[in-house]
Amino acid sequence: MRTKRRFTVPDFFLHLVVLVGFVVSIYPIYWMFVASTQDNEQIFGKSTYLGLGRSLATNFHDLMVKSGINIFRAIGNSLEIAIISTVVAVLLATLAGYAFAIYRFRGSKTMFNIFLISLMIPPQVTMIPLFILMSKFHLINTRWAIILPALVTVFGVFLMRQSFMTFPVELLDAARIDGLGEGRIFLRIVLPLMRPILSSLGILTFLASWTNLLWPLIVLDSATKYTIPVALSTLMSTQTSPNYGMIMLGASIATIPMLAIFLLLRKQFVAGIMSGFYR
């Protein structure tokens, strides 16, 4: 029979730290949603009002009509870019990580070390040559100028390679003895077993694409092509006296898809992240 463990003083402080961390983490998100229902006077009042305001309809009207930005088109653009980037980037990172971890070929360690070294290069350094390259291919102001540079992520390759390092090679050998080809082994055995870490990498990649501001801001110059971060940034720059409630409403709408994806895949995400601590 399992005995009930006593609640000790260290447990109390541990729970207190977790509670404080939860409040600190969730407060900005809560305030963003609350501020989207308020006007500037309530947001910048002497005393912070944490209750729902009465300006939600006004803020929504300003966002849809007066802002000059089609927020839902921007969300559609971001979804299209993020979905394509995530699916292809996760697939390529999985293939590359699988090759680096499972197969032994000449120069594999050197190639992987070059991958790791490229992690040390700030992305801002590559933006000018990357812009010139996209310009030569006539991809400026298109979604492909954002998608193509994001298809191979060094972090994704590194994460998948480290996960495959502890993959049970005996399963692969047994499948080869049974006559399965390398492609069928990868699809039928490897991918199902790696589903948690694939979900984690997918969420992280989707989040990076969804929140990417600087590079889309450089390569996009048409309002119909704006992603959601670029559209939200223009709300600040195109108004002499910004309606911050409207801006917070736009940010709230942009946050909802990410929250929905995380809630749907939270179990796989946690399992994938935690698997790295036990390997």
Could you describe the 3D structure shown?
The mean pLDDT is 84. 70% of the residues lie in helices and 0% in strands. It is mainly alpha-helical and 279 residues long. The chain starts with 8 loop residues before the first helix and ends with a helix. It is built from 14 helices and no strands. Residues 75-265 form the ABC transmembrane type-1 domain.
Note the main attributes of this structure:
279 residues, 14 helices, single chain, mainly alpha
Structural category = mainly alpha
Percentage of residues in helical conformation: 55-70%
Radius of gyration: 23 Å
Main sheet properties? none
Order of helices and strands: HHHHHHHHHHHHHH
Number of helices: 14
> How much is the average pLDDT?
84
Distance between the termini: 31 Å
The proportion of strand residues reads: under 5%
The count of strands amounts to 0
Could you say which overall geometry the principal axes of the C-alpha atoms support?
Answer: globular
Give the low-confidence spans. Answer: none
Main location: membrane
Subcellular location: Cell membrane
Protein name: Carbohydrate ABC transporter permease
Family: Belongs to the binding-protein-dependent transport system permease family.
